[in-house]
Amino acid sequence: MARRRATIERVKGALMFAYRLTPQQAFDLLVWRSQESNVKLYALAAAIEARISDVDLPSEARSSFDRIVHGAHEDVQRR
Q1: Which of 26, 45, 47, 72 could form a disulfide with 21 if both were Cys (CB 3.0 to 4.6 A apart)?
Q2: Which residues of 12-39 are buried (b: 16+ CB within 10 A; e: fewer)?
Q3: Contacts 24+ apart (CB under 8 A), 25-31
């Protein structure tokens, strides 16, 4: 059960990032696709997660993430 929930949460996070959704909106999107395709929620999330691993971010996006990861501590230290 916890493994299934973790898969759904990871996919929710990916949807939130990709589409700039709230957690509830991401979950609602998953539920909608699950119902529309008549596929169990976990099975759909697992299939999406498997496909996400094949996505290759452009180097510009990776560079942006590098800057975020390497500089985020500065935001914390300023507080």
Answers
A1: 26
A2: bebbbeeeeeeeeebbebbeeebeeeee
A3: none
